[in-house]
Amino acid sequence: MREVLTPRERFGLLVIDEQPDRCNIIPLVTSHAARVKGIKLRDYYTNGESMARAQITAYELYGHDAISIFSEVGIIAEAMGSEFAYPEDDLPVLKNPVLSRVDIEEVTIPKTAKAGRLSLYIEAIEYAYGALGDRVPILAYVPAPFTTGMMLSDPNDFLLQTIRDAPHIKKVMEKSLAAAIEFCYDIIDAGGLPIIVDPLASSSVISPKAYKEFALPYERRLIDFLHRYDLDVILHICGETTPILDLLPDTNADLISLDRVSIAHALDKLSRKMRIIGNFDTSNLAFSKPGAIKEGVMEMARLG
Fold it and tell me: 85 pLDDT exceeds 90?
């Protein structure tokens, strides 16, 4: 049956809180697109056109409602000086964090057009926008300041410093925020919609107290910046978020994309404060039968 709306039109209704013709289906098809295209992961995350072509191939196969330009959360930190290893068929691995070599005052804010792989993401956005932008939203995933801050540092040292040296962590956050804002400027100019991702700020990694002090204020400032463009902003946090559900409205995000949390509990806490995206367990997509997947999705839609 022919659908009434294009994915772009359907997404437009989502962000203005209007009823679409059906639920938006926005799986995080990021580096998995390389598998669909039949290319090595390293080719995907080191070549903008390859990334865009892989995303388009996945879109044509699956028929979901958005292109997702993303591979992993180290992209801003790399542009700021952290060094990563590039396995042939795996995602980049942090090898030499910049703050193990220099002080935070010496770290510069990257200009996207000339900085590391950020320029490849802009190339991917421009290619995808040129191919599908009139019909499909081009979502570009931007690591939030806390996640970038951890990739600028030895992750274990960074977590210890949240306890021992809060002023230092806040300096790192300020620099990471400035870099994220610069990146968002270029994403919007290229035709992409920034989606904020902060997986390392989840309760699987840090305490609610640390989240409230070091992650939330910088998420909020980044989201408030994007509100200047009259955008409704999606914040995605992987992992466990039950302990911080009450704090999430303070981020000023318009939509919250959740992972390991009871959707009924999330609705109870957030449904009159934020719009909720998620949170079907991706392992069920891999290992469940189609009938069970259909039942699970229908139950989520019924609850919501």
Answer: yes
Task: For 265-299, give the DSSP string.
Answer: HHHHHHTTTSEEE----HHHHHHS-HHHHHHHHHH
Bridge partner residues of 268 (DSSP): none
Identify whether 251 is part of a domain: yes
How far is Cα 300 from Cα 288, in angstroms, rounded to an integer? Answer: 16
Residue 203 · residue 242 · CB < 8 Å:
yes
DSSP assignment, residue 261? S
Residue 1 lies in a domain: no
Q: Are 160 and 212 in contact (CB under 8 A)?
A: no
Q: Is the Cβ–Cβ distance between 244 and 260 less than 8 Å? A: no
Cα 115 to chain center, whole Å? Answer: 19
In a domain, 2, yes or no: no
CATH of the domain at 105: 3.20.20.210
Instruction: Tell me which residue of 264, 211, 208, 199 sits closest to 238, measured CA to CA.
Output: 199
For the chain, what is the domain count? 1
Residue 8 burial class via C-beta count within 10 angstroms: exposed 0-12, middle 13-18, buried 19 and up: middle
In a domain, 194, yes or no: yes
Q: What is the pLDDT of residues 140-182, one digit of tens each?
A: 999 999 999 999 999 999 999 999 999 999 999 999 999 999 9
* Span of 16-25, 34-43, 78-87 with lowest mean pLDDT: 16-25
Q: Are 162 and 218 in contact (CB under 8 A)?
A: no
